[in-house]
Fold:
Amino acid sequence: MSVTRAVVRFLLLSIAAGIVFIAAGRGRGDDNVVSLGAYLAAVATLAAIEALRWMRLATGADAATVPSLVRRGVPAPSPRPAALLGLEALVDSACLNGRAARVRLQPRLQELARHRLAAAHGIDLAGDPDAAARVLGATAWGVLAPPRGPVPDPDDPGLPLADILATVEALERL
Structure:
């Protein structure tokens, strides 16, 4: 067993022993035993963390060899780009409530449709909505059509994910 593993095992056992002291003191109603248990658990935890730090300094080990239990620092970045995470959040919110669908997602999809229709077919989305509806299809047009009525409340249902996917696929086909 490596020294690091032994120190981590000591850390976990000392915390467990402190919890047992606390539980035993509470069961007997003895506040001194509870205080002693909490104190011992805290001291053992600090001693184990300090031992790991000294061991890392002495061996020249980098942070990758120290168990994640005591590793500090910035969490690893997501493997997906931030822009993709933002789009996923946008679609999630549009599926959950009607206001996000109308105010946040629909304008972005309309902007894409406006450019794609103009470039591929010479159709103006706002100027010739009938031609745009024919090219895009019924489902995509239902998402991209100019809004009617007041802006939905946040509690109103959002767009079905299948409709959003069909709209994106229709835009990709252009």
About this structure: The CA atoms of residues 115 and 136 lie 13 Å apart.
